[in-house]
Amino acid sequence: MNYRNFTLIALALFLLTSCVSTKKFKKSQADYALLQTKYQTLEGTLADCNNQKAGVQQENEKLNKKISDLTRELEYVKQNYTQALSQLENLSVISKQQAESIKQSLQNIGAKDAYIQNLQQQMAYKDSLNMVLVMNLKGAIGNMDDQDINIKVDKGVVYIDISDKLLFKSGKYVVTDNAKVVLGKVAMVLKNQPDIEFMVEGHTDNVPFKGNAVLIDNWDLSVKRATAVVRILQNEYGLDPAKMAAAGRGEYHPVAENDTNEGKAQNRRTRIVILPKLDQFFQLLEPKKAGQ
């Protein structure tokens, strides 16, 4: 082998090694970029959850303050009752029957105190369940644009707002294929909570709808859109129809001014409202029978 051939072989080996190293480097760069994107997505989700948690904590602080004020008021009334009863008994101004009646009133005050504590425990439990539900929904849906879907808790009620540009074409009430993917993720979370009941609300902007053979106005359009979503959740994702309700709100519950295109876009939405369990709440208000 002469010197020229040896040089060519060495050069070829060098170029081949360099090419392989470059490919590995580019692949590593791509992997790093993908991991960085996932990290940023997780950071965003965590920030949203922390914001929701802070809101719930603020609501709990307000409720705890109200309960604390009521408790102090009860203690004050109890002390005055006890003092008055003692003075009246010492002066022999009231009869024994009247004294027993006042004692019964004191016992009722004690029962109300226990009732307040029970309400506090129930509210804390409900807030915890709502927080878990919101976190599960955000985790299932992923890092979607907040303009397309927004999940929040307001006064103890969970709301899921989905923009109409994601769900429907303009003036239509047929759910798009892309929207079915999102509804499927929401349905997966709701299906794991069989006791949950919810309402699907259709909302429009204030632009008058041009009627046709099926729809007359925005009322009709909003109702049709709500029932279209309910049917998807029932027929394609197996949610219990007895746990769902559909309602059309038309243009009459806007979340933004209708003076701009951006405001109109926010008002054109479909809202899923997780309904509070009012029957359980009213059970707490009912007087307990003896022995319970």
Describe the protein in words.
The protein contains seven helices and five strands. It has 292 residues and is an alpha+beta fold. The protein has a five-stranded mixed sheet. Helix 1 runs antiparallel to helix 2 and helix 2 packs across helix 4. The chain starts with a helix and ends in a 7-residue tail after the last helix. The mean pLDDT is 76.
* Biggest sheet layout: 5 strands, mixed
Radius of gyration: 32 Å
Low-confidence stretches: none
Amino-to-carboxy terminus distance: 104 Å
> pLDDT average, as an integer?
76
How much of the polypeptide forms β-strand, as a percent range?
A: 5-15%
Along the chain, the helix and strand elements come as HHEEHHEHEHEH
Number of strands: 5
Structural class: alpha+beta
Number of helices: 7
Supply the key terms.
single chain; alpha+beta; 60s Ribosomal Protein L30, Chain: A; five-stranded mixed beta sheet; 5 strands
What's the arrangement of secondary structure elements?
Layout: H1 3-91, H2 96-141, E1 149-154, E2 157-163, H3 164-167, H4 177-191, E3 198-203, H5 218-235, E4 244-250, H6 261-267, E5 269-274, H7 278-285
Parallel strand pairs: 3-4
Antiparallel strand pairs: 1-2, 2-5, 3-5
Can I get a quick summary?
With 292 residues, the chain is α+β, with helices and mostly antiparallel strands. Helices cover 64% and strands 11% of the residues. Strands 1-2-5-3-4 form a 5-stranded mixed beta sheet.
